[in-house]
Amino acid sequence: MDIKQLRALLTIAETGSVTKAATLLHLVQPAVSRQLRLLEEDVGTALFARGRYGMELTESGQIFVEYARRALAELDRARSELQPAGGVAGVVTIGLLPSTCDLLAGVLVSNVARDYPAVRLRISMGYTGNLQNWLELGEVDAALLYDPKPSPTMQVQPLLEERLWIVGRPEAGFQADVPVDLKQVAGESMILPNAPHGIRSLVEQACASAGIELSIAAETNAMSVQKGLVVSGLGLTILPSIAIVDDVARGILSAAPLSDANLLRKIVLALPNSRRIPVAVRCVVELLVSQMSDAIKLGKWTTARWLADEPAPPEAKISHLKG
């Protein structure tokens, strides 16, 4: 078993085709087929079956692909530790929340290209549960999470806190300077993320404390669908302001901050405890944190309060960031 065989396996799994995999790997098709055959002989089982839509992973193949992906990710991290004389280099994968991607992704890519041209940046988008799982599995190097449950596998640093907003169509008449109490919308149809999404948990806790029962019209873990259903007039939703600032500016939606004291979400930076943090990861993380702080100072991240400069409990401090 060697790296070429593992790369062939993952590329076939991603494309569903030996021919397409060969093109991406810059190899002839028989060479890729041979690498797969040798790998299957080595592990003693078939990893693919030819299905209706091309090469489909067998149950054994699905298991093996997970380990192969992690193995190659670890090798990429090892290479990034061996810094070339030219400066910081390596592959860095950052996990971002859907509500933060539009504001952060483009600027982060530009800043990394400017400051660390030898760093190859990857951005993975997901909700807190997915991102935390990817972080623990080694599929992302650092991630922004909604205030997650404590875990021995990761270290966190609180970065910011922001109020949640009630969101509806323009005719709902919500205004940024007129806060709304959750009780005022208790009788409305609501479109919310599936449990146990972070915002859903906050809303449910606030409703339980206030003795409110919301009417859930639909549940979805796709933020674009969540907003689309509101635009279609199927209900109201609850989101952080950063997720809807452009929609409100274009007149597609109206929104107002919720006045309930416990409807605040906290975003933290999470790094793994189980492995070294390469120099390239530390550098990209520092750019990301600085960028988020600047977004608040410049008024681009409305209603957010910066927390990272406040004293953090010892277990939340990230010593790796400085060395």
Automatic annotation (TrEMBL):
Q: SUPFAM superfamilies, alphabetically?
A: Periplasmic binding protein-like II, Winged helix' DNA-binding domain
Tell me the GO BP annotations in alphabetical order: regulation of DNA-templated transcription initiation
The UniProt keyword set, sorted, is: Activator, DNA-binding, Transcription, Transcription regulation
Query: In Gene Ontology terms, what is one molecular function of this protein?
Result: DNA binding
Q: Which Pfam families match?
A: HTH_1 (PF00126), LysR_substrate (PF03466)
Top-rank taxon: Bacteria
State the InterPro entries in the record: LysR_HTH_N, LysR_subst-bd, WH-like_DNA-bd_sf, WH_DNA-bd_sf
Residue stretches making up the HTH lysR-type domain: 1-58
| PANTHER family linked to this entry | NITROGEN ASSIMILATION REGULATORY PROTEIN NAC, TRANSCRIPTIONAL REGULATORY PROTEIN NAC-RELATED
Recorded family membership: Belongs to the LysR transcriptional regulatory family.
Name under which the protein is recorded? LysR family transcriptional regulator
What is the originating organism of this protein?
Caballeronia humi
- State the organism's lineage: Bacteria, Pseudomonadati, Pseudomonadota, Betaproteobacteria, Burkholderiales
